[in-house]
Here is the input.
Amino acid sequence: MPPLNAVALEGLALRYVERFATTRGKLADYLRRKIRERGWEGEPADVAALAERFAEKGYVDDRGFAEMKAASLARRGYGERRISAALHAAHVGADDAAEVVEQARDGAHEQAMAFARRKRIGPFARQPADENQRRKQLAAMMRAGHSFALSSQIVRSCVTGDGNDD
Here is the structure.
């Protein structure tokens, strides 16, 4: 393939943003990778300026991406830490991520219960878990971004399953 130039780079950027919801940082990373792979011809490329121009035109929206990504992860039961890490990995700035992470913090219990339901942990388990299973369930809850206190509370709240309610 021939080396990229300014026109080809902009074409690549347009195709990328029409196919994927993205951030300025992810778009810039993608363009830098393409330049490394194919080479560059002409004046040095300013991928950050191109990504910024796309944001000004509305092709890239870091705040909208953050809201969409956080809502998707929250529906799947992931917690604040996991959501925050995903936004950081997507190069969402602190200003754009702050309110979204705060919303995740406010919905922590609902998200943890959704994760527990999906993974059949705690009150959603089919049968009581032994100590080893509880440790594994606690680890899964924490990897999903939930706090230790909330995770252990949910893991310990398992159904006894013996039919005795005394």
Q: What stands out?
A: Residues 24-38 form the longest helix (15 residues). Confidence is low (pLDDT under 50) at residues 160-166. The two ends are 74 Å apart (CA to CA). The chain has nine helices and no strands.
